Amino acid sequence: MADLDNIQSGKNYHLDKPHRNPAFELKGSNSLDWGMKNRLARIFNPRDHRTVMLAVDHGYFQGPTTGLERIDVTVVPLVAYADALMITRGALRTSIPPEMSRPVVLRSTGGQSILKELSNELIAVDIEDAVRLNASALAVQVYIGGVHEHQSIGNLAKVVDSGIRYGIPTMGVTGVGKELVRDSKYLGLATRICAEMGAHFVKTYYCERDFEHVAAACPVPLVIAGGKKLAELDALKMAHAAIQEGAAGVDMGRNIFQSDAPEAMIQAVRSVVHEAEKPQKAYDLYLSLKNAPVGSL
Ligand code: 5RP
Q1: If you ran DSSP here, which 8-state letter would residue 148 be given?
Q2: CB of 253 closer than 6 angstroms to any ligand 1 atom
Q3: What is the DSSP string of 48-62?
Q4: How far apart are CA 284 and CA 268, in angstroms?
Q5: Least packed by Cβ within 10 Å: which of 52, 74, 160, 202?
Q6: Whole-angstrom Cα distance, residue 128 to residue 114?
């Protein structure tokens, strides 16, 4: 039975302090609900509003990609260095220990392979399963200018709606068909459409000319994919330029897990994203971590 006699009544109501309503400063996110903001704050570090996402979802359309043949062996050691993990539900359930504390950005569309038309995707995860997996965000590929453009924009709209019901944000991923040029005009079109359709953040590619216009015209945070494997210094230069020109981080895959030293590379990428390290300094860090005797760090 409740002890009604010994209930302590409150004493300090801080009457001199107005109730605080601090702004949620992540780009374009101040009007979202609490759960959305909380999940976004798990992905984008609230200190600098930036993120290093590790993308390992490639198998969903290209099978056992180099570096991802055994996710349990090669990806698990990298997870601790990532701010978030972009992954399919199959790889998550089979290969990532549930004790892992990093937020999951769940690949939510698929349905094609490298043998067929890439834009022919459908929604491949039920929102209830995303909740079951404790997803912090959903990822949807959108193929602007692709054969199935209309269908892929429809997928984005449907996933955004499902996510809103449960407070889970959606990342629009600008998929680029072989025939499409990755210039600022195209990327500006694709990223803006994702944001206007309700994506809470957008993944795109870096372009050397006018990327700052792409970032400025997108009202939600942009993260860049790494694309095909580059020399480590070049990948760090690309990440640095993207951040300087307005990206909120990276969602990088092959340039990390296909590196000669993936753990060293992801730490070098972190230094560029979170410490604004210059590419050469970050590369020096990569070399020193790569060449450090095992067990010395
Ligand atoms: C597929 C994806 C991939 O996860 C992503 O593009 C891969 O990242 P990276 O290009 O850095 O290997 O979204 O479309």
Answers
A1: T
A2: yes
A3: TTBEEEEE--THHHH
A4: 8
A5: 74
A6: 28
